[in-house]
Amino acid sequence: MPEPLAGARELVDDLVGDRAAEWDRTGEIPDEVLRTMAARGLLCAGVPADFGGLGATSAANGEFTAYVGSRCSSLRSVMTSQGMAAWAIQRLGGPRQRAMYLPKLAGGQLAAVAFSEAEAGSDLSAMTTTIEPDGDAVVVRGRKVWTTAAHYADVIVVVGRYGSGAAAVVVPASAPGVTVRRVPLPSGCRAAGHADVRLDEVRLPADAVLGGGQPLMLLVTTALAYGRISVAWGCVGILRACLDAARRHARDRRQFGEPLARHQLVGRHLANLLTAEQIATRVCEHASRGWDSGSPDMVIATVLAKQVSAVQAAQGAATAVQVLGSTAAHEGHVVERAYRDAKLMELIEGSTEICQLILADHAVSMAA
Ligand code: FAD
Q: How far is ligand 1, taken at its centre, from the CA of residue 111, in Å?
């Protein structure tokens, strides 16, 4: 059986080339890059073959996500959004909705997922967006913020209140009442197309509603699980790029008559970077094994992977800057981008503190 991601890294090498810094500076990934990846199903490679996807395992998709993340965190962020949209549809949608939406996402359409609002960041229970039935339609009203990839998206999966519970709704970005406005000058992942999304009386057919009536936090946890594993693997990619740049520099650059790597304090930085990359890789592999075997521990293993990988990536990128010195002090250098991008990974998909609270609850509830 052919490996579903065969040739994918080579395609990414061709598409990204040495342009990631330029995309970061201009804040834009060219449409042809995103459409080519989307049409090959690579932005959501976990979509099952029955729905036109590549059917990659979480482990294989994770390694591919890390590869993309090592080249361009903005492109990896778009992948995370697309994969999360597909996962939300797969988990929350009925058979007809899966058949209606998933082949499009695996075949070229671009998607984003909107949970956050100005007053509902870490505390998504404060969400005020509503999805209200109206005859054979629904009306969506709300204001979402910081939606990754919304600038590029054809459809936005919007989470909101639905009766006494919650639902997600698949909103075409072109629907009347939808306004997408870019977040100005994000500090990292600058080409990921972050945007605020206004939903003014957006009228959609009722079959655009997914998972209607579920408790809000259950729905959010389900949809976020994919985002978390994807970001975690993306952080592995950031660490690999940093380790690679730091070890090359420490080997080639000489000070005090010796390569930097021969100075023990620089050697310690390299050891710390290697350790960070290995720790992040192992927690991600562990979580992906849980996804691939359907383990009941998959959700908590994913939170652990996200928390550990994001912290390691933020610290590792700072370490890499230290090893490269002024070489990394140029805007657009791979390590300089990693430093800005990695810090944001500690804020999203459940910040480091929110992940720690989930892990603490888990620790308390564990059997003795
Ligand atoms: P706040 O919730 O105000 O938190 C600020 C600080 O307080 C954080 O350190 C937080 O950990 C801490 N804190 C808050 N509550 C507690 C607590 N109870 N205990 C301890 N510490 C606490 N949203 C989407 O819906 N879709 C997206 O695609 C998306 N992409 C994003 C991409 C980027 C680059 C960024 C920066 C944000 C994105 N977001 C997205 C929004 C993101 O999910 C929120 O920024 C995140 O949930 C944190 O919310 P906040 O920024 O409002 O911070």
A: 21
Q: For the chain, which residues make up each domain, given as ranges? A: 8-105, 111-213, 217-365
What is the token pair recorded at 19?
């342009």
**What local confidence, expressed as pLDDT, does residue 270 receive?**
98
Tell the CATH topology of 111-213. Answer: Butyryl-CoA Dehydrogenase, subunit A; domain 2 (2.40.110)
Residue 349 Cα: closest atom of ligand 1: 43
Report the pocket of ligand 1 as residue ranges, CB < 6 Å: 81, 113-116, 121-122, 146-148, 186, 189, 194, 344, 347-348, 351, 353-354, 357
* Separation of alpha carbons 237 and 73, rounded Å: 8
Residue of 347, 358, 359 to test ligand 1 pocket, by largest number of atoms within 8 Å of CB: 347
| Domain 217-365 bears CATH identifier 1.20.140.10 | yes
pLDDT tens column, 339-360:
999 999 999 999 999 999 999 9
Rounded Cα distance, 231 and 236, in Å = 9
The string of pLDDT tens digits covering residues 262-319 is: 999 999 999 999 999 999 999 999 999 999 999 999 999 999 999 999 999 999 999 9
| Strand, coil or helix: 178 | strand
